[in-house]
Amino acid sequence: MTKSINSENYQPNILGNDFEQMTLNFPDDYEGKVTATLVRKLSENPSEKAVLYVHGFNDYFFQVEMAEKFNQNGFNFYALDLRKYGRSWLPSQKMNNVRDLKEYDAEINQALKIIEQENHSKVLLAGHSTGGLTLTYFASRTDNPMVKGLWCNSPFYDFNLVFFSETFGIPVISRLGKNYPDKKINGGFSPLYGQSLHQNFFGKWNYNLDWKPNVAEKVNFGFIRAIHQAQREIKKGVSINFPVLVMHAEKSSNPKKMSDEVFGSDIILSEKDIRKYAQKIQGNVMILPFKDGIHDLVLSRKEVRKKVYQKLFDWILQNQF
């Protein structure tokens, strides 16, 4: 049975419900020790299909319903908490501190190796927001034959800023990030988003507020540089040789107080930017908007989530995963 696969290498996970985790260790970097965490939940029935999910900025994996939907549709589910996020964050580290998104190649490739060793032949990459950017960038460079598709949930293909900040400010910070990677700047998104999600405020979801706070801590110039450089590659028009599905909210907004807009639009990124740069990806790309969707579509209202999963698994079936 699938549930016996390499169980001795995993420990119980805080999510319970048969979720397990494995710590991945890597060479020290500019802050010292580096780890990542691979979380998995196996399907009840044996399967050679797996999904590997990567979270966004100021985030970690906690979306139990998403994992269960994949299990119900014949996939073993895996998720990475990347280095310096969530389960992988160490007290010696500044949260989210990387200087090149290629640093994440180590844990993505290690996860794929483990997934292959656990008797899988097909893998769907799945990324939300910054995870969508990271995996799009990775997908354009990988030659791993197991990877059969990429699903992006509101990928971070562009900063959602006013014209001057985006056109002049970000490039300047990116250049400065080469020589001054540890200089800090505000993370820059509304606390309303987190408040709309967590059950302690106005939302329905339960997660660790230390790992996903409503107000993100300041980010390093080096992190801005890492994001900006990857975005530049996407905007040039990367080529991906397997099917890509990009989903996003139908509209974005910038509310100043808690309102219906917060619960029915993307208040983090611009849907126009997502669509514009997804269209530049060379290959088999489908782009789908969702009415009343929020930034993380799988945390939207129930009726929206139902449509997201329906369209996702229809696309998977169409592409014969």
TrEMBL record:
SUPFAM superfamilies named in the record: alpha/beta-Hydrolases
GO molecular function, one term: hydrolase activity
Keywords: Hydrolase
Lineage per the UniProt record: Bacteria, Pseudomonadati, Bacteroidota, Flavobacteriia, Flavobacteriales
Occurrences of domain Serine aminopeptidase S33 (ranges): 47-251
Pfam families referenced in this protein's UniProt entry, alphabetically: Hydrolase_4 (PF12146)
Name of the protein this chain belongs to: Alpha/beta hydrolase
InterPro entries registered for this protein in UniProt: AB_hydrolase_fold, Hydrolase_4, MAG_DAG_Lipase
